[in-house]
Amino acid sequence: MRTSYSALTTYQQCPLRFKFQEIDRIRVPKGLEAVFGAMIHNCLKFMFERTPLYPTLDEVIDRFRTIWQNKEITNLNFEEDKAYCEDGISLLKNFYRLNQPWNFNALELESRFEVLVSEQENEEKHVLTGIIDRIDKISNTDIFEIIDYKTSRRMPSQENLDKDLQMSIYHLGISRRWPHIKPENIKLSLYFLKHGEKITTSRSKEDLEKTKDFVIELINEIKKRIENNYDFPPHPSPLCDWCGYRPRCPMWKHLYQSKAKEIPGQKEIEKIIKEYFDLKSQNQKNSKRLTELQSSIYEFMAHENVERVFGENCYLTKTLQERFIYDMKKIKEILEEIGKWDEVAKKKQFSILKATKKKPGA
Ligand code: SF4
User: Over the stretch 157-207, which tens digit does the pLDDT of each residue have?
Assistant: First the structure.
């Protein structure tokens, strides 16, 4: 199979989205965030290209303004358009201030790679492709740094970054391109442009072997789904908001249908759903308040050293529960001595059976 890191990530996030995108090859327009991200990437590539001099900050900003004005997205209102444009400019200014291009030794920009992973059992080979935003060689060292730019706000924890599939696959990509580089000499970094923060990880030889196994596992899972009548279920999540396949996804069918035409019973079901959520939220508030009241009552009882408290026409009693812990080994010894163990054990078994016996139809 030939696939890419981003296709595998899409599969992990939602198998149905993977099917739409990679198997059915249905093309949908890119969302606003993706378009914005692609433009920023374009400007950062331009910033590190030396022709023969590095571009100035003004040239980078001009480039962004031009491509932003020529974008194909037309449904933005004036305020949104202005906010995105200003966001892009401030992000690029900030980046330029912290990362003047002449201070880095960028070897490659938007570098394409291919990784070969082979299955030992059947010798089947798979190709993984990807694009690395920037590869630097750190001056006066043997260290190479892979840098991937992110325009998202959410930064992963170090723990998650250390297990991140993208970083592992990029490492495999660079190792295939330049096999002489030792794994410990490869730094893997994500640069979060909105925060001006870079977080870095690395991989050992063992980590990379595990990554290959994991990739093979994922590919086999996909193959099985294809064999199983293209069984790619939807996995709804907050990421649905950025999914271009929402209008054709079964999880969103009702929303789109109800927008497109009058559905019989639509008004009633809306009322029922509203009441359901109102009650649920009321229940949550009630149960929170009940817990607070209970703890105030217990506090009072403890302070006054009483087991029962009286209100107007009502009272509350503290329930005492005695719990025993049996030493089963000792009990067995005693019962065996008097010849009663088998009888008791049978009864115990019977009561367990009774307790676990399912009701018809349950
Ligand atoms: S809308 Fe959500 S559930 Fe449906 S395909 Fe897209 S990501 Fe998957």
Answer: 999 999 999 999 999 999 998 999 999 999 999 999 999 999 999 999 999
Which atom, in ligand 1's list, is nearest to the CA of 234? 3
Read off φ and ψ for residue 26, nearest 5 degrees. -85, 120
By alpha-carbon position, which residue is closest to atom 4 of ligand 1? 249
Instruction: Report pLDDT digits (tens) over 87-124.
Output: 999 999 999 999 999 999 999 999 999 999 988 777 88
Atom of ligand 1 nearest to the CA of 239: 7
Residues whose beta carbon lies within 6 Å of some atom of ligand 1: 14, 16-17, 234-236, 239-240, 243, 245-246, 249, 251-252
